[in-house]
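Student: Hello, beginner here. Can you help me understand the protein record under this note? Any guidance would be welcome.
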Amino acid sequence: MLNIFDNPSKYIEDIVTKVKIDKGKLKKFKGKTMAFVFFTKFCDVQCSHCFFRSDNEGYELPREQYEFSREGFEKFITFINTSNNGYLSILGGGEPFKKFEYIKETIRRAKTDRIVIVTSGMWAAEYDTCKSMIDEMYEALCQRESPTKVVLRISIDKWHLLKIGVDCMYHIIDVFQNFFADTENFELQLHTLTGDNSIDRVIDHYPGCTKTIGKKYVSDNEEIFKIGLYRYALQFKDGYKIEVGTAQIFHSNLKVNLKNQNIDIQDLITVFDKDMKYNSYSNPSLVKNKNNEWGLDFLISYNGNIATWGNEQLYSLNNVYTDTYEDIISNIYTNIISYSLLDKGYFYRTEIISEVNPLAVLRSKAIHIRDYAGASILEEKHTILYYAIRVIQDYINEHVITFDELSCLPKELQDMIHMKKSILKKIYENTSYSIISQYMEKENFDEKEWRDLFNLIYFGHYAVSREQVQKGIQYYNGHSKTKINTLEEVLDNSKEHYQRLIERLTFMKPEAKELCMRKGENIKAI
């Protein structure tokens, strides 16, 4: 019997392009949407625990791979203004104030009910500069055509204080307390991590400042529920209040050693699942509205890639440079793999993938990166194919899809869909396909890519046999100028290596990258 898991790419394409749920049976998530955006990857703080490991050097063209160009920003605004947005968060990771003009324009132009700007506050080292920039944000708010609320949220923790000190924080608090304490739609908030006592520096600095009693698992607003782990407020002597949100720290590490018994992997998993269950209502792609409607929750990367949160498909990316709002929504709903997350949630996906590839589930949690957990768990193509088949089987049982609607698929794929789960699992387990095979399918050999893959295999990130590893080493030796005998020979702890690992999960949609390259070359020629 032909084993379709030996050639998963072909059948994934068949499923994604041909299996469509009737529009009348699709669930519609029509509530107000939430969106999180990174304007840039660059940051001067460069916290050691940050997933992005952001710095400001060593990047290739086009620059749009690392931050929004003017065109990218305009397309972002168009997307937001078309998306029925109720909550827009401009994230740190890269420092958003490195794109201060984009912040001000977003405040002026974005059609949304709430804008939350997340920052380290390092731009506030000088009081006069701090006051001027906050004034400019408020002026932009006053220039809007429709009302909104703008929240400036300062991240305070031991890493930020070590890097930038406390003066930035005091300057920002002083400006808001003295000039905007009674301003209705312009607010300062603080944000910290559980177990971190950095907020005590504020209490000690301002005489009479105290903490209020807080609440667990509460939203930062009453319209669209953005649940935080714990919220309280700082009460100042003059009556001024600053809300403080707390979150669990995520120990982001793309090279986490899954074979090291000294690492408490279970603790990492517990934190991750707890966040998914309580903070994300078990579905990171959706956001709950006050009226109990559900809306889509988008993550927009600095390179223009866009997906509902936790739902990025590396084989089928969306990007604001190449895709309209209508294109993106259509791609999310008509791709049965991405739609199933909207419909059935995070734990449904992990349960199915655990049937055949529990290591993929473990990897996606243990790297401790919520933003790209979806890209990580669905990285191996034969696993993607298994998941897609199981989703189709469930939709058939639920009468959402009929067998007649699958007649357009190749017969061997239809046969697999008709099989019992136990038999399907055995066929999956009998394939010789692995992440090694997936890399061998690539048109061009990239020595660094292979070395990075070998590093991750060494740390236990992929289910590969000893024979498959040897096959990969033979392939590598046949194409590389350097020859190796074992994985240990290519282990790499360099900064460049880690940046490449980030790129494996966050690379810009190829068509968007090519478009930006062509436009850049045309501008240069002129």
